[in-house]
């Protein structure tokens, strides 16, 4: 579940299958290993042509799996794909306010794939913001970005006078902490591996927080490596050895569970505090060994009392089940006393100075999930998000709720403090009303100047919108324009103004500046200005290819509504339709049906570089948010578990019929593209509707639940999605034979005998979520029965296939594959 969604730093829940390349820094990948579709006669022909081309007289070999016709296509598509892929993303932004009250300074952290190096390049661009009047704003940009090579994360201090830069080691070397002032490096500290490993910068466990007077920074890092047994020629060496000596060697010791997909080999996340003056690092004491911690913030401090930290803790029963994309892992907010530093305590008489038995308080015992803690600016309340629907139902993601704790000044009252519901889980909303909360991140400071209104981004049907939430009254307003089908995301706040970004499937992102219009009706209370910026600059070619494209969001009525369906599950679902408007003839472009994974994820109406590339080379897109997707209320979402492979398949077929009936698609030119659960749907579709699709492309598809259940990091997912609400209770690591039969019967592999559609498989060999065996088994079985198949295995990729070269090669092959079969 990955994505290329712009400007949504830790947004795991949206579109993540195709559109969210998160940086992965590892060595070059090798060329495709498996290519099962090139007839040898064509290969010989290609080789001879290549020979004629060669002025040097050497024989050029055609890369594995290519023929000359395809090579032409490769060459032309690859140039264009590069132009799309090189458009920058905004990962984060901050505002700095000078003391003299003049204007503000914005800093944007951007990234761009460096395909040659197979890494993401990170850089910074700044802009001076001046408000000439309430309704006009001017951003003056620095002429060039500055590269931030080797930087894992940057975090400005609350006053904006210091910048923490963390560089994680690539090997066994120390983590580097740099503290920068306005014009120079002020401090640099190297934290050895014996203290802790890499600092978490994963967008989930990640948490780096400055205290109020900027003397301490709390953060989450990997625990130091446990010692491993040492052996030498006499056998086991008692007491081990810290030094490397050539006469001894290290064994492995006991295997430790990790959090699965993307966390392979990562050690337990633990809490640390560094003193910004001395560089002294202390591990936070008192936290149970088994608790994984993250998202730390400082609790409001009281003069003369200890400082406390609030963090999220995840516990587990017998094993850690995969956590990436899985909000159904129980978690709670905890408070713990921060370590004491001598310099901090000088001259202070601490009220509770004992260092023994440091207590850890669970603040959210009444609820099964609590994360993204944010204190109000006055420290009077603590707000957090909860995925309790997800935890309680077992669905890996579901509708969120927002809560508040009025923060007691007396530490002893913390554990019993009441949790107030601010936004409850929405089961089924009336048309035009909030469908529920679906958030993948909160700003570190989400507060307007009144101190009680939070600005957040959330999914609303097929779009992302910006909401203002008054956490005292519970009033929620959709403040991004309600008449816009574009997706909007808040980047940072400038006092009571908002710096945001807005985009659509056919419009590259545009920076927006939002301000409150006085004395206006509530519905029109915010106005948005366009901010010209150099950030999303793209080539003339890209601009000209995007300009004739248009998109709409279609409502698709549910087929076969019955009394057994809830109201929410009987309401229309949605699909985003992208097409070319200026057609020379009446013939429709070929259609690609695009299916997100999860299944409890969503394709939003934002710009996706890879999908825009496919649209620009002449495909219409039908991006289906089948029932079960996020953004449509809890009843619609919960209608899918237990019915995967039938209800979702039926919704996609209904959406296809809808566009055919409207004359927007030709029934003989339809292809399907999906990853993970989207690949499950795609392979189901080519089996259940074998005459419908001329080509398919699948990325790490789930093809056989009976195989997946024994190999994935989330076997519980197979139970919940195949069996519904019973699945959670019945989960066991050793599924009985009858259940394996059920899993098989609900899987695409059970329809394999009917498949005819030429299918390309893009597989990540390091995928722990849907291990490569799932795609390979299905591809080999198709090949065995004579269906055209191409398989590309990326040896160093995980589930998302996001490493720049792999992402590029995947979409280039998808483009060429579809061109071959969809004329
Ligand atoms: C929860 C989860 O990871 N499910 C996978 C089977 C899946 O479909 N993943 C989605 C999110 C993806 O798009 O990769």
TrEMBL record:
Residues 606-822 form the Peptidase S9 prolyl oligopeptidase catalytic domain. It catalyses: Cleavage of an N-acetyl or N-formyl amino acid from the N-terminus of a polypeptide. Its EC number is 3.4.19.1. Residues 60-542 form the Acylamino-acid-releasing enzyme N-terminal domain. InterPro entries: AARE_N, Pept_S9_AS, Peptidase_S9_cat. Belongs to the peptidase S9C family. This is acylaminoacyl-peptidase. It comes from Carya illinoinensis (Pecan). The lineage of its organism: Eukaryota, Viridiplantae, Streptophyta, Embryophyta, Tracheophyta.
